[in-house]
Design a protein that fits this description.
Elements lengths: L3 E4 L11 E4 L10 E9 L14 E4 L2 E5 L5 E4 L6 E4 L4 H13 L2
Antiparallel strand pairs: 1-2, 1-7, 2-3, 3-5, 3-6, 4-5
């Protein structure tokens, strides 16, 4: 579901991005893919990126950052288990994606 955080089960990227945020509208749930935003730990965040592009979110009580500019579509069946929902952060999430698309 939109704004659910999934455990990243891909061994090649899980260390860098332990979680994936599903940002795709639930209206498109019949599609075989989901648009996801990778989530990284605070210490892995490049220092020069603006907060609006990479908003901070808490997952399991630990600070993480969205990497909206690295959003990608993946097969829905490859999503790991749901860890939590970031629905309460929807405004910041949508703003970060808007920053990627429009630059503002």
């Amino acid at each position: 579901m939109q704004f659910d955080v999934h455990l990243n089960t891909d061994s090649a990227s899980a260390q860098r991005f332990p979680f994936l945020l599903d940002v795709q509208s639930d209206i498109l749930s019949a599609l075989p893919t989901r648009l996801v935003v990778p989530i990284t730990k605070r210490e892995r965040l490049p220092q020069s990126l603006p907060e609006r592009l990479c908003p901070e979110v808490a997952i399991q009580g630990v600070a993480h950052h969205l990497m909206s500019f690295e959003a990608a579509a993946i097969q829905a069946k490859r999503l790991g288990p749901v860890v939590c929902s970031l629905k309460e952060n929807s405004f910041e999430i949508i703003n970060s994606i808007d920053t990627v698309l429009s630059g503002v």
